[in-house]
## 1
Amino acid sequence: MLPETGLPEVAFAGRSNVGKSSAINALLNRKAAARVSRTPGRTQHINLFEVDAALCFADLPGYGFARVPAPVQQKWKASIERYLGEREALCLVVVLVDSRRDAQELDRGLIEGLQDAGLPTIVVATKIDKLSKSKQKPQLSRLAKGLDVPREDLLVLSSTKNVGVGAVWKRIRRACANWKPPTSEEPPTSEEVT
Ligand code: GTP
Ligand code: MG
């Protein structure tokens, strides 16, 4: 069970190895808050990072990595879905996709599911440092189109070169500012209101 922190929570979701843990470290300006690895499947549980007693980052396990045994994949999938569906403190989901790859079915499905659930979502294309300047524009347009998100809503990030960190923070701050803590009390019945 994840602890309740009473703080707005920002979740980082995406395929294995896309750079979720690295993104958290870059945003926190720390080298090793979240565990980073070249081996996909490094993050196996949901890890919470409290930021300045103001908000929390949730590092989610990655999905879609073929070498993780199917039963383990199923368990991760279930725990990610449960978290996204039930976590009351969730104020933003940052979906990370690899800037060098075209839109993937799993990513599109996740984005669609989040939109259907009415969860505020941003999409961030990672590892932009690995894409040559000349390729960036056409590749990002194609990726946005494939994911069915407006081009201006597709942010870019390089966690290693510290590119795009400010823009992602801006969206995180905006989402957290709009967040209200869930009330533990039941809403009044119509009899109590009249
Ligand atoms: P799982 O926990 O396995 O789902 O992976 P993850 O999404 O948390 O990825 P992680 O942050 O562990 O990064 C995976 C690999 O990509 C590591 O070798 C990182 O150093 C590398 N990486 C992450 N972000 C960037 C980036 O912006 N640029 C470059 N060049 N490499 C990156
Ligand atoms: Mg990770």
## 2
Amino acid sequence: MTTLIINIKELLQVRETAKAKVSGAEMAILSTIKNAFLVIEDNLIADFGAMENLPPIHADKTIDATGKMVLPSWCDSHTHIVYAGNREQEFVDRINGLTYEEIANRGGGILNSAKKLNETTEEEIYQQSRARLEEVMRLGTGAVEIKSGYGLTVDGELKILRVIQRLAQNYPITIKATFLGAHAFPLEYKENHKGYIDLIINEMLPEITKNKLADFIDVFCETGYYSVEETQQIMEAGIQFGLKPKIHVNQFNSIGGIQAGIKYNALSVDHLEVMKPVDIEALKNTETMPVALPSCSYFLSIPYTPAREMIAAGLPLALATDYNPGSTPSGNMNFVVATACIKMKMTPEEAINAATINGAYAMGISKTHGSITIGKKANLIITKPIPSYYQIPYAFGSNLIDTVLIEGEIIS
Ligand code: NIG
Ligand code: FE
């Protein structure tokens, strides 16, 4: 099956030779071709170039993209899409003055979601999560990482990971699974951290790897959650079971989580709302991708990741949604890109790089995703007719997506 897209006003994120990630000043460069064509063979990008160089081609399907932009679909490297119910009440409680921390301290927050999840059937969780996955696909996401972490019991964690596996089997979108058993301590282990960590290491991890239910291991390294020492212990165990770390750090406090992640060669360190100069320094010349989650900052009214300082230091940066019921009930990467420009002062070029190629890197899939490169997946966004790609962040809140292709197929 050959699909040909013609008259593309501008084809974005063109990379003749695939790059694993872009860092520092390179992030400002978004290579494009104006008045372009793109050829898809089955599920892969087979060719692209300027319209004047379009070779004779027999296409089974031709899409005329006059006035429209084409770009690789978003790579959302950090979500918690599989959860039960919602936390609307906590949202209103925060409006009325309680803090996220106060809500968590009285048994709300992650523990509230864990209670709901453990009371909900696997089928029901699948149905609720499926709707969210379909929504983000329509919003232009073509690859997504999904974490467990709302079970906090052996059964609950496995249930979430099985749902993620079932989503991956039933949908064309690329899905990477992360085991986040260390998201919080269940109430009964509040005074017995060792007991719960033993459960993670001795009961959850063996079962997860036996059934190939996860690619990565995550820990919420934060004051009141997992200490740096506990985080290291869990990363070490995960690595022994073949899971590379991708961890939550520096959301509210800078306590050394970044340095721990780097020590264990984490694929990414995520959140980074609170960054000290030593944290930025530590990330230099490492293979660890820093990931910012601006819609979490927006929703919780907490600081934004200091993108300008990080990029000036030569670091790469990826953008992701953090879609979850507590801190970010939104999986809209278009909003993430706009918010990164508006609030973090990233340029449109930097934000698009961060949400495509660097997002792919943060999931370990930059060989196959994140740029317009021959041989990569034909996961594409075709915009509505727009004056320039600046519209994507500029017209924040508007839906500028006309068509989404995943694995070369139009999704509706
Ligand atoms: O990434 N920070 C830790 N975990 C999630 C939110 C957890 C929740 O409130 O449910 C996050 O923001
Ligand atoms: Fe998260």
